[in-house]
């Protein structure tokens, strides 16, 4: 019985080992970390950023400050799948797509609805590419974007292309956009989907008296009802952050229409949008509340006055972005989408009567309340 048991165990282990014979070692694969798509002359142009395993994984031997090589492959084809498959001819090693962290579209690509639909199908159909990757659009040359260096020569994965969250926590201007959100939002009627645009600037950082290019989010394309509404600058979207649940903190200057004397950090806005019907047309009221910290104050004034001035700044920014959307017939805040979702009977009744329209007076009232809870190491008068 003992000999029979040993024989059975040996046969079992033999069959278990056969599952590893066709496996690849981690050093013998190319790891795609970002991909790009362009469309021109009737062809899809694919780009892939490849890093070695030592750059993808966190290791104790990684030398801080040492320049890390970045490889970029380029392919093309009549379909998205063919464009990426063409890279296999010259890649030398197997390309693994499971570590892709970002996808970048050119502005030419995003303006072509046929290209968008094909990419949507191909990327969602391929099993290795995950749903939690970041999505961007760029007007820059794709090779320049995919070879952009990180500050201090850290891993290329430490830029806002691949890791925007920490930067966003300090300066919550435009939220990072993820693929799973895009898939959800583009299929929801009336919902506005923001696709942040990546630019490269040499105006902010210098290394040893030499200008260093760095990534910059300078605006966003907006897609609504599966139609591209156009590009909106950061100034156009200045009020968007106050009606965004992911906003962490942002600095404003007060007073709004005079030379500023105080800088205030506002954190974690909470808001409520309330639709109602007046004169047989839909209207919206917006209530916003948040806390603030004084970062700088060069003029003696009271806390009550600062809170009122800060509220005026936020109110003006929200209204500015709304009016920008009205001029471009884009519901940036998704007011009508909220009405459709939360008050479907009201929406369908007004829609049948042809009374659903985005006008300047559709936004009825904006109420902003700000509570300053910290004044730094200096005290300030409450009244």
From TrEMBL:
Pfam families according to UniProt: Spore_GerAC (PF05504), Spore_GerAC_N (PF25198)
Top-level taxonomic group: Bacteria
Q: How does it sit in the membrane?
A: Lipid-anchor
Record's subcellular location: Membrane
Entries under PROSITE patterns matching the protein = PROKAR_LIPOPROTEIN
Keyword annotations for this protein, in alphabetical order, are: Germination, Lipoprotein, Membrane, Palmitate, Signal
- Does Signal appear among the keywords? yes
The protein's predominant localisation is membrane
Domain called Spore germination protein N-terminal: residue spans: 23-199
Q: Where is the Spore germination GerAC-like C-terminal domain?
A: 219-376
Q: Keyword Signal, does the record have it?
A: yes
InterPro entries per the UniProt record, alphabetical: GerAC_N, Spore_GerAC-like, Spore_GerAC-like_C, Spore_GerAC_C_sf
- Protein family: Belongs to the GerABKC lipoprotein family.
PANTHER family linked to this entry: SPORE GERMINATION PROTEIN B3
This one is known as Ger(X)C family spore germination protein
What organism is the protein native to? Paenibacillus spongiae
């Amino acid at each position: 019985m003992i000999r029979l048991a040993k024989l059975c165990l040996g046969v079992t282990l033999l069959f278990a080992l056969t599952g590893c014979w066709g496996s690849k070692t981690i050093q013998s694969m190319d790891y795609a970390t970002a991909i790009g798509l362009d469309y021109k002359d009737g062809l899809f142009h694919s780009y892939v950023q490849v890093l070695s395993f030592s750059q993808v994984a966190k290791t104790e031997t990684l030398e801080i400050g040492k320049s890390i090589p970045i490889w970029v492959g380029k392919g093309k084809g009549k379909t998205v799948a063919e464009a990426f498959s063409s890279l296999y001819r010259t890649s030398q090693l197997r390309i693994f797509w499971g570590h892709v962290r970002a996808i970048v579209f050119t502005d030419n690509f995003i303006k072509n609805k046929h290209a968008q639909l094909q990419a949507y199908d191909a990327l969602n159909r391929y099993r290795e590419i995950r749903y939690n990757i970041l999505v961007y659009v760029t007007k820059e040359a794709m090779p320049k974007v995919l070879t952009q260096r990180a500050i201090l020569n850290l891993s290329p994965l430490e830029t806002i292309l691949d890791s925007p969250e920490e930067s966003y926590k300090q300066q919550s201007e435009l939220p990072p956009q993820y693929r799973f959100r895009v898939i959800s939002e583009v299929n929801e009627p009336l919902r506005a989907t923001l696709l942040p645009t990546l630019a490269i600037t040499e105006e902010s950082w210098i290394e040893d008296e030499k200008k260093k290019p760095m990534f910059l989010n300078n605006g966003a394309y907006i897609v609504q009802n599966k139609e591209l509404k156009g590009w909106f600058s950061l100034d156009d979207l200045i009020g968007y952050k106050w009606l965004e649940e992911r906003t962490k903190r942002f600095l404003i200057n007060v007073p709004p229409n005079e030379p500023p004397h105080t800088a205030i950090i506002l954190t974690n806005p909470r808001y409520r949008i309330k639709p109602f019907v007046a004169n047989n047309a839909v209207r919206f009221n917006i209530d916003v509340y948040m806390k603030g910290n004084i970062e700088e104050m060069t003029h003696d004034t009271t806390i009550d006055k600062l809170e009122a001035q800060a509220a005026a700044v936020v109110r003006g920014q929200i209204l500015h972005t709304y009016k920008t959307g009205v001029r471009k017939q884009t519901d940036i805040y998704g007011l009508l989408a909220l009405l459709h979702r939360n008050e479907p009977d009201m929406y369908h009744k007004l829609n049948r009567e042809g009374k659903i329209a985005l006008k300047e007076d559709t936004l009825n009232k904006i109420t902003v309340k700000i509570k300053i809870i910290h004044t730094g190491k200096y005290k300030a008068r409450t009244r």
